[in-house]
Amino acid sequence: RKSLEGEVVKSLLTGSLSARPLERYDVKAEYRYVQHDNRTEEFVTPQMSQLDVAQQGSATPENVSYIEREVALEQEIEVSRRSTLGLKLTHILATFKNGSANREQENRAVLSFDTRALDWATVRVSGEHGVRDSDYPDYSGTVYSGGELPWMRKFYAASRDRSQLVAMVTILPMEDLTLSLEQVAGRDHYPATEFGLRNASRDLTSLGLDYAVSEEVTFSAFASQERTFSSQRSRQWAMRNRTTGVLPVGDPYDQFG
What is the DSSP string of 89-153? Predict the structure, then answer.
């Protein structure tokens, strides 16, 4: 087979309601519904698999479909004439067909502070913490099941704790010049993962410059530096003894066969 026609039907529904029940208090409720229906025809591909001996077989990819529902409540209060404090709470529920996990849910909270206390600068600081729970199947004690290795979790479907801090500053030193600085520090932890990605970090620094040369011409420059770090755990492969059928050692975290 040399070609394949894919068909994916995607539906999106969003809605929001904003209100100002008090003089300095704003609230906004949001809802988001996404349906990703993968209707691509299944096909079989030949392959060679290497176990104790080479074996010829075939593979049939399973198309993944999902439904994601998101509910958010955002609140903002003016603590002073030029400063506001915000809090956004989000709940996400996703169900999958042929996914690594059948169901995922995430709760996320973002606390932010914005100030324009200085005429020539604005500052925004926000902190985020989110917890994602996944009903990832437990393949412990099995050698091979459903295409998954024992104790391994794919990072995009595994349970995750995420924390992130963001600081942004915009400076106007002169009428036609704007300078911006952003610093991001994020940390991810996968508490249920024995094999695979267990910890990750991301640090980003960016600088921006905008200068209005004239009413018709604006000069812009941007630079950023990003540093990522990941910690993964794996195990070595040990084939069973062809005579006795046992592994060299008994610890399944060190050997797999």
Answer: EEEEEEEEESSSSSEEEEEEEEEEEEEEEETTEEEEEEEEEEEEEE-----TT-S-BTTB-TTB-
Place of tokens 């062809």: 242
List, for residues 129-146, the tens digit of each pLDDT value.
999 999 988 766 555 455
What's the token pair of residue 229?
């770090």
Q: What is the pLDDT of residues 16-68, one digit of tens each?
A: 999 999 999 999 999 999 999 998 887 776 665 555 444 555 556 678 999 99
Rounded Cα distance, 136 and 204, in Å: 31
Which stretches of the chain are assigned E, i.e. beta strand?
8-22, 25-38, 45-50, 54-59, 65-80, 83-97, 103-118, 121-134, 160-174, 177-189, 196-212, 218-233
pTM of the model: 0.81
Give the number of other CB atoms < 10 A from CB of residue 181: 14
Enumerate residues 6+ apart whose C-beta is below 8 A from 244: none
For residue 4, the tally of other CB atoms under 10 A from its CB is: 10
